[in-house]
Amino acid sequence: MTGAAPHATPPPGGFRRDLGEQGLRRLLEDVREGRVSLDEALGALRRLPFDDLGYAKLDSHRALRMGFAEVVLCEGKRPEQVAAIMRRCAEGPGPALATRASAEVAKAVHAVIPEVRYEALARVLVYEPEPLPKRPGVILVVSAGTSDIPVAEEAAVAAEVMGNRVERLFDVGVAGLHRLLAHLETLTAASVLVVVAGMEAALASVVGGLVRKPVIAVPTSVGYGASFDGLAALLGALNACAPGVTVVNIDNGFGAGYSASLINAGASAGTG
Fold first, then answer.
1. Angle at 154 between CA 165 and CA 245, to 5 degrees
2. Are 93 and 19 in contact (CB under 8 A)?
3. Are 256 and 192 in contact (CB under 8 A)?
4. pLDDT in 10s for each residue of the chain, 272 residues
5. Which partner from 121, 127, 173, 176 sits 20 to 30 angstroms from 149, CA to CA?
6. CA 244 vs CA 62, 149, 169, 236, 272: distances in Å
7. Helix, strand, or coil here: 185?
8. Domains defined for the chain, CATH in brackets
């Protein structure tokens, strides 16, 4: 969903609630140069710790502490609640994300933020007035099967919005190992790999044995009977023979994409 109308009205005083590190620097520089009074700056900073909506307390310091603003989980929230939360998030300086969004939720959010983009396959809402610059390195998102793609897309979209170059390699599970080996150069060139697999999640261990980069396994709930809605995949990934494989929760594509972004950011800054 897209639109041309202006985004949510800025808060009183013209200051954004979630300043982020760059925004805070600009505010302090404005005070130093006399463009902003001390009282105005204090008013802006007073709102920083969190923004209380009653049913939600938005962590306005998240971007300052962790490098990216708070991400909204839509499950369990009413559409109008998500819309109000996202409206406030859109007043921040950078992208805003909401995961596990249904079409109904997307419609409610789009009504108040016409520019929001709905990635239906990933079930992710993206408000991205100015995309973050892409840092060096590539995050490769790999799926074992086509049925795993929705979770893989959640990881990919999250990592992209957080300022990473992302490549996708889908449907290369171990039942046809030649499909994976045909892309060995792509696998070894990646900085971080997110491997999404259901059933027994064997693909994560196989990939871990082929590369010298961090591998994040995402077990999915795809599978029959004794897969126990992803429990078998989770246990399989946790017991991966290959070293260097870490595991997130079942179907947690967002968590994998976020972690991959942190790893890539650290490597790009020379701290990884």
1. 75
2. yes
3. no
4. 433 333 333 333 344 445 556 677 787 888 888 888 888 777 666 666 666 565 565 666 666 666 667 788 999 999 999 999 888 888 776 788 999 999 999 999 999 999 999 999 999 999 988 888 899 999 999 999 999 999 999 999 999 999 999 999 999 999 999 999 999 999 999 999 999 999 999 999 999 999 999 999 999 999 999 999 999 999 999 999 999 999 999 999 999 999 999 999 887 666 54
5. 127
6. 29, 23, 20, 15, 14
7. helix
8. 1-9+17-24+49-130 (no CATH), 138-266 (3.40.50.1970)
Look up residue 61 and give its amino acid: H
8-state DSSP, 131? P
2's tokens? 């897209």
Rounded Cα gap, residues 95 and 85, in angstroms: 14
- Cα–Cα distances (Å) from 129 to 90, 93, 114, in that order, read 9, 9, 11
| Alpha-carbon span 63 to 72, nearest angstrom | 14
**Token couple for 50:** 């969190």
